[in-house]
Amino acid sequence: MAHFHTEFLLFIGYCLLNVYVLVTYWKWSLGLVLLYLGYRLTRMKSRLTIAGKAVLITGCDTGFGHHIAKRLDDRGFTVYAGVLNENSDGAEALRSRKSQNLHVIKLDVTKEEDVNKSLEYVTNNNKADLWAVVNNAGINMPGDVELATVDQYKKCAEVNLYGPIRVIRAFLPLIRRSKGRIVNVSSVRGRFSWPSDSMYHVTKHGLETLSDSLRMEMKKFGVKVVIVEPGNFVDATAISGREMMKRIQREVDFMWDHASEDVKETYGRHYLHRKLKCSFENDGKLSMSPVSDAIEDAIIAENPNIR
Description:
Elements: H1 2-24, H2 26-43, E1 53-57, H3 63-75, E2 78-83, H4 89-95, E3 102-106, H5 112-124, E4 129-135, H6 150-160, H7 162-178, E5 181-185, H8 198-218, E6 224-228, H9 242-257, H10 261-267, H11 269-281, H12 289-300
Parallel strand pairs: 1-2, 1-4, 2-3, 4-5, 5-6
Helix pairs in contact: 1-2, 3-12, 5-7, 6-8, 9-11
Protein backbone atom coordinates (compact mmCIF):
# COMPACT_ATOMS: atom_id res chain seq x y z
CA MET A 1 0.00 0.00 0.00
CA ALA A 2 2.84 2.36 0.84
CA HIS A 3 4.43 1.59 -2.53
CA PHE A 4 1.16 2.56 -4.28
CA HIS A 5 1.02 5.85 -2.36
CA THR A 6 4.61 6.64 -3.35
CA GLU A 7 3.91 6.04 -7.06
CA PHE A 8 0.71 8.12 -6.84
CA LEU A 9 2.54 11.04 -5.22
CA LEU A 10 5.27 10.85 -7.86
CA PHE A 11 2.63 10.93 -10.61
CA ILE A 12 0.91 13.98 -9.05
CA GLY A 13 4.25 15.68 -8.69
CA TYR A 14 5.10 15.01 -12.32
CA CYS A 15 1.76 16.45 -13.49
CA LEU A 16 2.17 19.58 -11.33
CA LEU A 17 5.69 20.07 -12.68
CA ASN A 18 4.40 19.96 -16.24
CA VAL A 19 1.65 22.46 -15.41
CA TYR A 20 4.21 24.75 -13.79
CA VAL A 21 6.49 24.59 -16.85
CA LEU A 22 3.60 25.32 -19.22
CA VAL A 23 2.36 28.27 -17.15
CA THR A 24 5.81 29.72 -16.55
CA TYR A 25 7.16 29.19 -20.02
CA TRP A 26 3.93 29.36 -22.01
CA LYS A 27 5.47 31.55 -24.68
CA TRP A 28 8.19 29.01 -25.32
CA SER A 29 5.66 26.18 -25.29
CA LEU A 30 3.44 28.02 -27.76
CA GLY A 31 6.43 28.74 -29.95
CA LEU A 32 7.40 25.06 -30.05
CA VAL A 33 3.83 24.05 -30.94
CA LEU A 34 3.67 26.66 -33.74
CA LEU A 35 7.10 25.58 -34.99
CA TYR A 36 5.93 21.96 -35.16
CA LEU A 37 2.71 22.91 -36.96
CA GLY A 38 4.69 24.99 -39.42
CA TYR A 39 7.00 22.05 -40.07
CA ARG A 40 4.05 19.73 -40.68
CA LEU A 41 2.47 22.22 -43.08
CA THR A 42 5.67 22.52 -45.10
CA ARG A 43 5.79 18.71 -45.35
CA MET A 44 2.34 18.61 -46.94
CA LYS A 45 3.05 18.26 -50.64
CA SER A 46 0.90 19.89 -53.28
CA ARG A 47 0.14 17.66 -56.25
CA LEU A 48 0.81 18.40 -59.89
CA THR A 49 -1.71 18.26 -62.71
CA ILE A 50 -1.58 14.87 -64.42
CA ALA A 51 -3.21 15.79 -67.73
CA GLY A 52 -0.79 15.78 -70.65
CA LYS A 53 1.99 13.97 -68.80
CA ALA A 54 3.65 10.68 -69.74
CA VAL A 55 5.86 8.31 -67.74
CA LEU A 56 8.35 5.70 -68.93
CA ILE A 57 8.89 2.73 -66.59
CA THR A 58 11.43 -0.07 -67.01
CA GLY A 59 11.01 -3.60 -65.67
CA CYS A 60 7.22 -3.85 -65.96
CA ASP A 61 7.01 -7.61 -66.51
CA THR A 62 6.62 -8.18 -62.77
CA GLY A 63 6.97 -6.57 -59.35
CA PHE A 64 7.07 -2.86 -58.65
CA GLY A 65 7.20 -1.84 -62.30
CA HIS A 66 4.10 -3.86 -63.18
CA HIS A 67 2.22 -2.52 -60.18
CA ILE A 68 3.07 1.15 -60.68
CA ALA A 69 2.36 0.95 -64.43
CA LYS A 70 -1.22 -0.08 -63.69
CA ARG A 71 -1.60 2.49 -60.94
CA LEU A 72 -0.36 5.40 -63.06
CA ASP A 73 -2.59 4.27 -65.92
CA ASP A 74 -5.54 4.43 -63.52
CA ARG A 75 -4.43 7.92 -62.45
CA GLY A 76 -4.63 9.17 -66.05
CA PHE A 77 -0.98 9.25 -67.08
CA THR A 78 0.19 8.10 -70.48
CA VAL A 79 2.35 5.13 -69.49
CA TYR A 80 5.15 3.52 -71.49
CA ALA A 81 5.66 0.17 -69.77
CA GLY A 82 9.01 -1.31 -70.73
CA VAL A 83 9.15 -5.10 -70.56
CA LEU A 84 12.00 -7.54 -71.05
CA ASN A 85 9.76 -10.07 -72.80
CA GLU A 86 6.82 -8.88 -74.89
CA ASN A 87 5.18 -12.30 -74.47
CA SER A 88 5.55 -12.53 -70.70
CA ASP A 89 2.51 -12.98 -68.48
CA GLY A 90 3.06 -9.49 -67.12
CA ALA A 91 3.14 -7.93 -70.57
CA GLU A 92 -0.04 -9.78 -71.57
CA ALA A 93 -1.75 -8.66 -68.35
CA LEU A 94 -0.94 -5.03 -69.10
CA ARG A 95 -2.19 -5.31 -72.67
CA SER A 96 -5.38 -7.00 -71.46
CA ARG A 97 -6.36 -3.76 -69.76
CA LYS A 98 -7.00 -2.38 -73.27
CA SER A 99 -6.11 1.12 -72.13
CA GLN A 100 -5.34 3.66 -74.82
CA ASN A 101 -2.93 5.36 -72.45
CA LEU A 102 -0.91 2.24 -71.60
CA HIS A 103 1.79 1.30 -74.13
CA VAL A 104 3.69 -1.96 -73.64
CA ILE A 105 7.09 -1.70 -75.31
CA LYS A 106 10.05 -4.06 -75.45
CA LEU A 107 12.86 -2.52 -73.43
CA ASP A 108 15.88 -4.59 -72.45
CA VAL A 109 17.96 -1.98 -70.63
CA THR A 110 21.17 -3.88 -71.44
CA LYS A 111 20.66 -3.31 -75.17
CA GLU A 112 21.33 0.07 -76.75
CA GLU A 113 19.09 -0.87 -79.69
CA ASP A 114 16.08 -1.43 -77.43
CA VAL A 115 16.66 1.86 -75.64
CA ASN A 116 16.93 3.78 -78.92
CA LYS A 117 13.79 2.15 -80.35
CA SER A 118 11.90 3.01 -77.16
CA LEU A 119 13.07 6.61 -77.43
CA GLU A 120 11.86 6.74 -81.03
CA TYR A 121 8.48 5.30 -80.04
CA VAL A 122 8.00 7.79 -77.21
CA THR A 123 9.15 10.72 -79.34
CA ASN A 124 6.76 9.85 -82.16
CA ASN A 125 3.80 9.63 -79.79
CA ASN A 126 2.76 13.26 -79.42
CA LYS A 127 -0.22 12.64 -77.13
CA ALA A 128 1.68 13.66 -73.99
CA ASP A 129 5.02 15.14 -72.95
CA LEU A 130 7.40 12.78 -71.20
CA TRP A 131 7.35 13.94 -67.58
CA ALA A 132 9.15 11.14 -65.75
CA VAL A 133 11.44 8.17 -66.23
CA VAL A 134 11.28 5.41 -63.61
CA ASN A 135 14.36 3.18 -63.67
CA ASN A 136 12.96 0.10 -61.98
CA ALA A 137 14.46 -2.88 -63.85
CA GLY A 138 16.89 -4.85 -61.72
CA ILE A 139 18.28 -8.28 -60.85
CA ASN A 140 20.00 -9.82 -57.85
CA MET A 141 22.76 -12.42 -57.67
CA PRO A 142 23.67 -13.73 -54.22
CA GLY A 143 27.22 -14.95 -53.77
CA ASP A 144 30.42 -14.37 -51.81
CA VAL A 145 33.18 -12.26 -53.35
CA GLU A 146 35.47 -15.28 -53.56
CA LEU A 147 32.80 -17.34 -55.32
CA ALA A 148 31.22 -14.81 -57.69
CA THR A 149 32.95 -14.35 -61.03
CA VAL A 150 33.91 -11.03 -62.61
CA ASP A 151 31.51 -11.83 -65.45
CA GLN A 152 28.67 -12.13 -62.92
CA TYR A 153 29.56 -8.76 -61.40
CA LYS A 154 29.43 -7.30 -64.92
CA LYS A 155 26.13 -9.04 -65.69
CA CYS A 156 24.49 -7.59 -62.57
CA ALA A 157 25.90 -4.14 -63.30
CA GLU A 158 24.65 -4.21 -66.90
CA VAL A 159 21.06 -4.27 -65.61
CA ASN A 160 21.22 -2.43 -62.28
CA LEU A 161 23.72 0.32 -63.07
CA TYR A 162 24.55 0.66 -66.75
CA GLY A 163 20.91 0.02 -67.68
CA PRO A 164 19.66 3.16 -65.88
CA ILE A 165 22.61 5.11 -67.30
CA ARG A 166 21.61 4.12 -70.85
CA VAL A 167 17.99 5.03 -70.27
CA ILE A 168 18.79 8.33 -68.54
CA ARG A 169 21.21 9.44 -71.26
CA ALA A 170 18.70 8.62 -73.99
CA PHE A 171 15.62 10.24 -72.44
CA LEU A 172 17.16 13.15 -70.56
CA PRO A 173 16.64 15.68 -73.40
CA LEU A 174 12.88 15.01 -73.22
CA ILE A 175 12.92 15.28 -69.42
CA ARG A 176 14.87 18.54 -69.55
CA ARG A 177 12.33 19.93 -71.98
CA SER A 178 9.43 19.16 -69.62
CA LYS A 179 11.45 20.01 -66.46
CA GLY A 180 10.30 16.64 -65.19
CA ARG A 181 11.62 13.81 -63.02
CA ILE A 182 14.12 10.99 -62.98
CA VAL A 183 13.10 8.35 -60.44
CA ASN A 184 15.68 5.65 -59.72
CA VAL A 185 14.56 2.59 -57.78
CA SER A 186 17.59 1.63 -55.71
CA SER A 187 17.48 -0.35 -52.45
CA VAL A 188 18.26 0.04 -48.78
CA ARG A 189 21.15 -2.27 -49.63
CA GLY A 190 22.60 0.54 -51.68
CA ARG A 191 23.31 2.24 -48.35
CA PHE A 192 24.62 -0.62 -46.19
CA SER A 193 26.50 -3.83 -46.86
CA TRP A 194 25.54 -7.43 -46.20
CA PRO A 195 27.54 -10.64 -46.70
CA SER A 196 27.05 -12.77 -49.81
CA ASP A 197 25.33 -9.98 -51.74
CA SER A 198 28.14 -7.69 -52.91
CA MET A 199 27.21 -7.94 -56.60
CA TYR A 200 23.87 -6.33 -55.81
CA HIS A 201 25.29 -3.84 -53.28
CA VAL A 202 27.92 -2.54 -55.68
CA THR A 203 25.35 -1.73 -58.36
CA LYS A 204 22.79 -0.18 -56.03
CA HIS A 205 25.36 1.96 -54.26
CA GLY A 206 26.55 3.06 -57.68
CA LEU A 207 22.97 4.00 -58.59
CA GLU A 208 22.70 6.01 -55.36
CA THR A 209 25.82 8.06 -56.08
CA LEU A 210 24.89 8.45 -59.75
CA SER A 211 21.50 9.84 -58.69
CA ASP A 212 23.07 12.30 -56.25
CA SER A 213 25.46 13.61 -58.90
CA LEU A 214 22.70 13.82 -61.50
CA ARG A 215 20.46 15.73 -59.08
CA MET A 216 23.08 18.45 -58.67
CA GLU A 217 23.70 18.59 -62.42
CA MET A 218 20.01 18.83 -63.31
CA LYS A 219 19.08 21.46 -60.72
CA LYS A 220 19.91 24.27 -63.15
CA PHE A 221 17.41 22.79 -65.63
CA GLY A 222 14.56 22.42 -63.14
CA VAL A 223 14.71 18.61 -63.28
CA LYS A 224 14.28 16.71 -60.01
CA VAL A 225 16.02 13.39 -59.33
CA VAL A 226 14.51 11.09 -56.70
CA ILE A 227 15.76 7.82 -55.22
CA VAL A 228 13.29 5.19 -53.98
CA GLU A 229 14.86 2.64 -51.63
CA PRO A 230 12.68 -0.46 -51.09
CA GLY A 231 13.40 -2.77 -48.19
CA ASN A 232 12.50 -6.44 -48.08
CA PHE A 233 9.56 -7.12 -50.41
CA VAL A 234 10.38 -10.70 -51.41
CA ASP A 235 6.83 -11.98 -51.03
CA ALA A 236 5.31 -8.98 -52.79
CA THR A 237 7.41 -9.31 -55.94
CA ALA A 238 8.63 -11.99 -58.33
CA ILE A 239 11.98 -12.32 -56.53
CA SER A 240 10.97 -15.69 -55.07
CA GLY A 241 9.06 -16.77 -58.17
CA ARG A 242 9.83 -20.00 -60.01
CA GLU A 243 11.60 -18.38 -62.96
CA MET A 244 13.71 -16.16 -60.72
CA MET A 245 14.76 -19.09 -58.56
CA LYS A 246 15.74 -21.05 -61.68
CA ARG A 247 17.86 -18.13 -62.88
CA ILE A 248 19.64 -17.75 -59.55
CA GLN A 249 20.19 -21.52 -59.38
CA ARG A 250 21.92 -21.30 -62.77
CA GLU A 251 24.12 -18.50 -61.46
CA VAL A 252 25.03 -20.55 -58.37
CA ASP A 253 25.91 -23.53 -60.58
CA PHE A 254 28.04 -21.22 -62.73
CA MET A 255 29.92 -20.03 -59.63
CA TRP A 256 30.66 -23.59 -58.59
CA ASP A 257 31.76 -24.68 -62.06
CA HIS A 258 34.22 -21.77 -62.30
CA ALA A 259 35.58 -22.00 -58.76
CA SER A 260 39.10 -23.23 -58.15
CA GLU A 261 39.69 -26.55 -56.43
CA ASP A 262 40.93 -24.69 -53.34
CA VAL A 263 37.74 -22.63 -53.15
CA LYS A 264 35.57 -25.72 -53.68
CA GLU A 265 37.38 -27.54 -50.89
CA THR A 266 37.17 -24.52 -48.57
CA TYR A 267 33.46 -23.77 -49.01
CA GLY A 268 31.85 -26.98 -50.23
CA ARG A 269 28.82 -27.27 -52.48
CA HIS A 270 26.45 -27.30 -49.48
CA TYR A 271 27.53 -23.74 -48.63
CA LEU A 272 26.22 -22.45 -51.96
CA HIS A 273 22.94 -24.30 -51.58
CA ARG A 274 22.50 -22.92 -48.07
CA LYS A 275 23.09 -19.38 -49.31
CA LEU A 276 20.60 -19.91 -52.13
CA LYS A 277 17.99 -21.14 -49.66
CA CYS A 278 18.59 -18.19 -47.32
CA SER A 279 18.01 -15.78 -50.20
CA PHE A 280 14.33 -16.74 -50.28
CA GLU A 281 13.59 -17.65 -46.67
CA ASN A 282 13.07 -14.05 -45.50
CA ASP A 283 9.48 -13.46 -46.63
CA GLY A 284 9.37 -9.69 -46.30
CA LYS A 285 6.36 -7.47 -46.82
CA LEU A 286 3.24 -8.74 -48.57
CA SER A 287 2.16 -5.49 -50.22
CA MET A 288 3.95 -3.39 -52.82
CA SER A 289 1.85 -0.35 -51.94
CA PRO A 290 4.51 1.44 -49.81
CA VAL A 291 6.95 1.38 -52.73
CA SER A 292 4.29 2.31 -55.29
CA ASP A 293 3.20 5.18 -53.02
CA ALA A 294 6.79 6.45 -52.90
CA ILE A 295 7.22 6.23 -56.69
CA GLU A 296 3.90 7.97 -57.28
CA ASP A 297 4.83 10.71 -54.82
CA ALA A 298 8.17 11.18 -56.59
CA ILE A 299 6.33 11.72 -59.86
CA ILE A 300 3.31 13.77 -58.77
CA ALA A 301 4.43 15.80 -55.73
CA GLU A 302 5.45 19.34 -56.57
CA ASN A 303 8.43 19.11 -54.21
CA PRO A 304 9.21 15.43 -53.61
CA ASN A 305 11.74 14.16 -51.11
CA ILE A 306 15.06 13.31 -52.71
CA ARG A 307 14.88 9.88 -50.99
